[in-house]
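note to self: dont lose this again. the chain is below, predicted strucutre after it. 256 aa total, dont forget to put it in the shared folder this time
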Amino acid sequence: TNMWQKVRSTWAYVHDNYLNEYDFFHIGGDNMFLVPDNLVHACNTINISIHEPIYMGQAQGEVRRRRRFCGGGAGYTINRVTLRLLVREQFDKEDCWPNHMGSDEDRILAHCLRWDVVNCTHNTDALEQSRYHAMDAHYHALYHNSMPAVWDPDGLSHFQGIYAPKRNFLDSVSTTTVSFHLVTVNKGELGRRPDSIFDDKGLRRYHAIVYNRCPNQNTTALNPAEGCEIDPKNVRRSDYECRKKIEETKQKRLEQ
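---
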């Protein structure tokens, strides 16, 4: 895919049309769930002057390299100063890969900002719980910081002094979470789960839960299958079976 050129064009357009209208700007894909109120809170409480470059999100380590970037899956947030640096000083430089075609836009953007000594800030709350999440809520609810992960936690802690997350399971997820990347886990990471059972990757489901729109917060889908329950003694297995049952129920309804 050509994500890098799309992102370059997006930021250039935002710079040309909205630079002086907003203090902060956030970018993410169509499989990202964003809580706007919490994004505003994160921007208002970051311990960096708004007059300094700000680049924050889910810090990810580059394997075997002593550097980091803000992962594009959860989206990342920059301020006006950073946007100005990118578009006016970096984008057209050869070292910023202006003609590159590829999907690694988050890594390249971080590379461009390093020339101005701007590194990704791993954004957490006062309890050091993460606000930007590289995977979906299910993944992070079951994640323990001793496990391998796409954001290279060993590299982050060893080379960057960033422990992401410091806490485990739901204690690692901030009550002022900004975003989740709505993707299924890879093979070998907390087991294998089926692809999303939702046409919108669960965006409306997340919205309903966050804004208390569900008549029954214990349901596992918008249209749960009969007898679909989560066994607390075996969450991973029962969740897989539950989702499979829901998909079968949906298929039967379509055939009727």
